[in-house]
Each structure stands twice: as structure tokens, then as C-alpha cells.
Amino acid sequence: xxxxxxxxxxxxxxxxxxxxxxxxxxxxxxxxxxxxxxxxxxxxxxxxxxxxxxxxxxxxxxxxxxxxxxxxxxxxxxxxxxxxxxxxxxxxxxxxxxxxxxxxxxxxxxxxxxxxxxxxxxxxxxxxxxxxxxxxxxxxxxxxxxxxxxxxxxxxxxxxxxxxxxxxxxxxxxxxxxxxxxxxxxxxxxxxxxxxxxxxxxxxxxxxxxxxxxxxxxxxxxxxxxxxxxxxxxxxxxxxxxxxxxxxxxxxxxxxxxxxxxxxxxxxxxxxxxxxxxxxxxxxxxxxxxxxxxxxxxxxxxxxxxxxxxxxxxxxxxxxxxxxxxxxxxxxxxxxxxxxxxxxxxxxxxxxxxxxxxxxxxxxxxxxxxxxxxxxxxxxxxxxxxxxxxxxxxxxxxxxxxxxxxxxxxxxxxxxxxxxxxxxxxxxxxxxxxxxxxxxxxxxxxxxxxxxxxxxxxxxxxxxxxxxxxxxxxxxxxxxxxxxxxxxxxxxxxxxx
Length: 497
Prior knowledge:
This protein is of the alpha/beta class. It contains 19 helices and ten strands. It has helices spanning about 1-10, 40-45, 105-115, 115-125, 145-150, 150-155, 160-175, 190-205, 230-245, 245-260, 265-275, 285-300, 305-315, 320-330, 350-360, 380-390, 400-405, 410-415, 465-495, and strands at about 15-20, 30, 55-65, 80-85, 95-100, 125-130, 185-190, 210-215, 420-425, 445-450. The strands form two sheets. An eight-stranded mixed β-sheet has the order 3-4-6-5-7-8-9-10, with helices on both faces. A two-stranded antiparallel sheet has the order 1-2. The longest helix has 30 residues, at about 465-495. The protein is globular and about 80 Å long.
């Protein structure tokens, strides 16, 4: 069951469209691409799905507090939170701890796909710790998934502040249990987990001496200027335009052609036939979302590479725009008997992530326009709030993340109270538009790669890795070694007193 759930989670289409007001076909579309840190690794190394987990991994469960920030009786309810440790290379008390902070999903996939900890643990003589995010995998409050997801009252304990407080409790518990009070902790996270690692270092500097935040879009929130303007869609468009302006313009023109065909008598039937859909299209959004997901996945994960999609579009035998677009679809999914609306089972991330988006992870959702290749979808925060209210009975708090963790004027603010964070980004990754791309201080360091993609640096390595990726990882390790050396110097000086 666990393996099946993991496979569904990781092989789902990249881009989900959150249609919270499902009763209305005309409801405003709020397209917020998913941020899985492991999908790219799995698509390039599908064999890891069936690989056996290392016998060196040991699973534990911590009796976690439901609510860390209140003192009501129900706040003290406990639930079992899963964490996994690997002691193979650990040098014992005082040796480092590398702690992976689980993102939006079961930890099972990360144990297979995240290689940074296991590959660097021997050099650091480090203990490896992987902690699962509350409300995912086996770390479910209230005794069951059904009860935990019952309504906003039970979902209300599901947020990033509670999650990083969970990580803090577990890490302190581990250090106490192993008599490792002086073992320095480096927290590591990717994508949403990279944001968690950043925020953990800022909120709990007494627990973590440093953080590696891979592809962390900590600036991808409302009222923060994105680089480039247009954010996610602009980076995807640039990736395609750099490879082929012809492909870029074909995609850009295709949206109006789709709308034009759809407006014809039996237009949806014609589109269904043209794109060999698994079921008749109920509206154009199904097709548009599917196509956007292909282009986003190519840019974010390099899977398939942009050159594969554009090569098929540019090389199509027909001059018909929709035939060209369909050629790109077939190149992306060559083994699929049908496309667009294949029946799929929802993963727990499909079910839970919309709550996170409807509460605090409120990203800018004005899509397309300007020089992007996507159809323009104006921002309508009021509509989005109404849909969240209709679905969950709560309204989003779009400015809470930047209020609680910081974000506005980050160059001025973060350098005054933050330290020892690596912000790694691949500039081909659309979410790099919300990342920290330049050094903020001597210890708030940006490690960016021109040709990099989403969270590649923390994934498992292989002999075929490009030179720039090998160098990026080596640079990150060198920085962490410097942090640890300073920590041990300070510790020795303190002990001598």
C-alpha cells in the first residue's frame, strides 16, 4: 500500500489546478504548480521506485504535541510522528547531524531520491535524520487520515510553524537520547522543504548551526518583487524561447486557437479527437491545464527536456498549430494510449496541499501575459479567498508567511539577523524566480547554476551528472565544512573556560 501511494504521488502530472469551487465550470482558475523536490530525480532514475530501502535506515516514532503554541487542553493531544535515522557513518556524540526536513508528502520517496545526506555523511561522520511532515505519510494526528481531514478545526493544526516546531522537538529529543547535546545540526530541505529549512534556521538558531535550502521559493509571496518580473511563467517561457523562438511562438498562439475551436459547434468534441483524450473534454481548462503541465515540467525538472518537446513541435509534419502541439504531447508521453484526462487516483499530497495553499502558502497567481507563452489569467484574490472559504470554511492569510518569517526587503532585513544559510537554485527552474539569487552576507550565500533545475543538488548523484552539478554540490559541502569548523572552534573555546 505504501509503495503504491508513493508511486501515485510521484508520477502524477506536475501541474495541478486548484479548482476549489468545483460546482462552477466558470470559476476563476488558480494555477499553482506543485513543488515536489523528488519528482525530477524519480523521472530520471525510475528504478529507485522499486529499489529496496537501505537496511541501515531505522524507523522511529515520536509522541508529538498537536499544538505547540497554545495551552488549551486539546493542545496537549499527542500523535505519532515518524522519523528515520541512519547511524552507519556517525562518529558518535559531538559528531554532526544532517537532518532532512520532510516537505509535502510521505517521507518514503525522499528516503529513496534524496542523496545529499547519505553521500556526504561519511565525510562528515554524520548521523542522518529524516523527519516526516505532519499530516503526511504515517505522521497523521487524530488517529486517522479521515478524522484529521474532517474539517478546518482538525486541519487547523496543519501549517509550517507547527511543522518546524515538530522538527525542533524531535531533534532535541534525538540529541538528548543519544547524549549528543554538542552535536551540531545542519538542516537540509528542498522546494517547500527548503523554505522550511530556511525558516527553521531563522526561528531555531540554537538547534541548527546552518541550513541548506535547495530551490526554496521563500520570496514567492504576494507583494514581493520577483526576478524576472512575471515569475514562474516568465522563466518557463525564457527556457523555451532560448531553445526555439519558433516553438515559443507556436505555443503562445495555440491558446487562442484552442479557444476558437472550442467555440465552434461540437468544438470540445473536435479538440477531444485532435488530442486523443482519454475521455471527452468537459471544458477547455482540462486541455489547457494538461498542456501547461507539460511545459512546466520540462522547465522545472528537465523531464522531458525542453528540446524534446520543442523538437517535436518544430518538427511536426503538419503546419496546423494544434497538430504541432499534439506532437509535443506525444513526445512527452510516447507510451500513453490516450492523453489529457487519464483516470488517476489522488495522492495524499493532492488532497492536503490545497489546504496549505488556502491557508498560508498563498503564492502570486496572476499567470501569463506580457512576454510569456501562457494565456493571461488575472489575479483575483477575492475570488480565491471566496473559493477557499467555500471549501474549507476559512480564508487565506496571504501575508502571514512574510509577517512571521520575513521576506519583504530581504536584502536589508535578513542580513541583520540571519546567518549560515545556503540558498541553492538552478536558474532553469521556474521557482528560482522566488529564490535568493545573490549573497546577502558572508554566511547567507547563494549558490546558483545557470543550467540547473529544481532541487537537483540534493538528489542522488550518478556518473552522468554534468560538471556544473558536481561543482555545485562540492561548493555546498565546502561551505558546510566551514560552518562546522567554526562551531567546533567555538565549542573548544567554551570548554576551556
